[in-house]
Write a structure and sequence with these properties.
Layout: H1 2-16, H2 23-33, H3 39-54, H4 56-63, H5 70-80, H6 85-89, H7 94-104, H8 113-116, H9 121-128, H10 133-140, E1 146-150, H11 157-165, E2 175-176, E3 183-186, H12 196-199, E4 203-205, H13 208-217, E5 224-227, H14 234-242, E6 248-253, H15 256-269, E7 274-278, H16 285-289, E8 294-300, H17 315-318, H18 321-339, E9 342-352, H19 361-370, E10 374-376, H20 379-383, E11 397-399, H21 401-404, E12 409-416, H22 456-460
Parallel strand pairs: 5-6, 5-8, 6-7, 8-9
Antiparallel strand pairs: 1-3, 1-4, 2-3, 9-12, 10-12, 11-12
The chain binds S-adenosylmethionine (SAM).
The site of S-adenosylmethionine has 18 residues, from helix 14 and strand 6.
Organism: Pollutimonas subterranea
Binding site for S-adenosyl-L-methionine: 253, 282, 300
Pfam family, one: RsmF-B_ferredox
Amino acid sequence: MAAVRIDQVRIVLGEILQWKFPADAVLSRWLRANPKLGARDRGEVAEAVFDVLRHLRRYRQFAESGSGPAARRLAILGLASVFDRSVLDTGLSEAEQHWLEHVLRIDVKSLSRAVRDSLPDWLDERLSTLHDADALIQALNAPAPLDVRVNPLKADRAEMLELLRNGAAARYSPEATPYSPWGIRMQGRPPINRWPMFEKGEIEVQDEGSQILAALVAPKRGEMIIDYCAGAGGKTLLLGALMRSTGRLYAFDVSAARLARAKPRFARSGLSNIVPVVINPDNDQRVKRLRGKAHRVLVDAPCSGLGTLRRNPDLKWRQHPDSLVELREMQASILRQASRCVAPGGRLVYATCSVLPEENEEQIEAFLADNPEFSLLDASTIVVDRCKNLTLQGPYLSMRPDVHNTDGFFAAVMERNKTSSVESTIPQGKDKLVDQPAPAKEAATDEPGALPQAGLAEDSASLDD
Ligand SMILES: C[S@@+](CC[C@H](N)C(=O)[O-])C[C@H]1O[C@@H](n2cnc3c(N)ncnc32)[C@H](O)[C@@H]1O
């Protein structure tokens, strides 16, 4: 068995290490091409492959000694984290057994941090400037639990927990997440997309940090909300449920393929207030029609994803300082364009799943310097409404795997002055306003039984007008 497994891991790694496609896409494709493999086989291959991606720099250094193809030695090192030595040894030659024994005895503390924790030099440098960098780096290198959340329109968390604990999911140790009131955390790799509660739209996969973002956007019933970078709809779904499927929730994205992936999720969720729209990145007429109209605009910006290394360890090898420069420009441009849709008194929420200040705090500081009609709000006072146990340092939502056991996640909330004119943000001669701005109305209460807010979205800001 070990010999077969080594070969399987070597083949998958061989393709991933060409860096043409994301690791999870390569792995899924390989698993689809090998449908006869059982759940245990799949789990072992996936675990070993991801272990190698997490520790690639260290393992490559270890693989310099020994003989035979380097990819095989990497596969052996990955499987050493999955199998007992006695099982693994049955697939190894005597020379390989000696080599493995030798490299596993190396004191990793004697290695430089970049090698020990397997970071490219540029990333080691950047992360080393962050508070408590060692703890952060180690947490980013550990596997993540699986977070799901209940759909508040269809399920209650306590009841769902009860159901999971008393069924086949019990072996994944389901627990309530500490901060999000909707989250359930499980260990291992539960096949949740085959569970009936998933098919019925009662639960969805979502990291707790992303769930908290919805609490920070804090949409209300009847409002008009724009999820400007909706992608496959992860954030849209919870926003729509918090609006109790009232008002209008635009799901914008430039990628038709990503929005198409969101559609089955929207269908499962039972939400009827979502309007998906594929937009052009520049001068989209439909975006212009919403200028100054939205109560809340969420920009879940394209980012390096370096906060999600627990789940996507290949990102540290796929990212590059040059791609970061491009991303920063794109983030600033999307933020600028999305901000124009915010109504006076409305809020703009910027989020990334990065831990790098250049994609986070520095973007916000630059935006606020250029857009004085926006001011920064204190995230902790907003989020505490729903996430009672979460205390934040400073004005931002800043989640870390070493502190909160979530992905690395950042968000900032900015409010447009109630008296600001929408034109003031638009450079002269460009982007003539199509509609007059509508002031954001007082937030309607989100309590059950409250009347939906008068139809700002329906009345004055429909894309179908
Ligand atoms: C971090 S992902 C969004 C993830 C999504 N919100 C979710 O929760 O599943 C960023 C998204 O921004 C989209 N994007 C890139 N450029 C954009 C632009 N100029 N305007 C709107 N969306 C854009 C990408 O296609 C991508 O889907």
